[in-house]
Amino acid sequence: MEFKNETDIKIVAKFVANKIIDKLKSGRTVLWFVPGGSAIAVAAETSRIIAKFSHSNLSVTLTDERYGPPGHQDSNWQGLLDAGLRLPEAKLIQVLTGENIINTTSKFNDILKQELDGANYRIGLFGIGENGHTAGIMPGSVAVSDEHLACWYKAEKFDRITLTSKAIQRIDEVIVFAKGEAKWKTLQDLEGEEDVTKQPAQILKRVPLLTIFTDYKKDL
């Protein structure tokens, strides 16, 4: 786990894009997980950089989604599109299908298995919440221990469909964007060994390569 004291969106996006572009140039098929929330702007800017290069071997899907009809106003995927996510050569995989949440989650689980198995490199851009959540895995939720690659549950504000810890542990590299003093205590706890049920972001430390861009600890 490496902390980088940087939160400029363009700089972080260039870092993420270069990772993906380098893998694509080497002939690998890449699966990129994109987030909702405060990291949407980073994902959109990253896509603008990638789009200048050949990216037909790139697949893109979400870390988590808020259930509803495709394109609903609180959808993470719609938020990414509205922010400017455009990758004309890539395989773009949205979660919402217009079906009920059970069928939608089941199909997402099947897609995840296919894409994780088929990719040569799996990389994710994630956020971390003030409460220690990452993707749609809230503290105490079933997503921490669910044995599938994707699961759904009723959260406080939305019915959520999310990657599980099992899926995250199949990712090769994760880049986190965590900006704001409200998240500093969470990041401090991340350096320790908190219970993953209480701080799901601890799961990210099980990924082989983890880089966290943040304004936490100005002396880094």
From TrEMBL:
The record's InterPro entries line, in alphabetical order, gives:
Glc/Gal-6P_isomerase, NagB/RpiA_transferase-like
Q: Where is the Glucosamine/galactosamine-6-phosphate isomerase domain?
A: 10-205
Show the Gene3D superfamilies listed in the entry. 3.40.50.1360
Q: Pfam families, per this entry?
A: Glucosamine_iso
Q: Tell me, which GO biological process terms does this entry list? A: carbohydrate metabolic process
Q: Which domain of life is it from?
A: Bacteria
Q: Kindly indicate where the leader peptide sits in this chain.
A: none
* Protein name, as recorded: Glucosamine/galactosamine-6-phosphate isomerase domain-containing protein
Identify the taxonomic lineage of the organism of origin: Bacteria, Candidatus Nomuraibacteriota
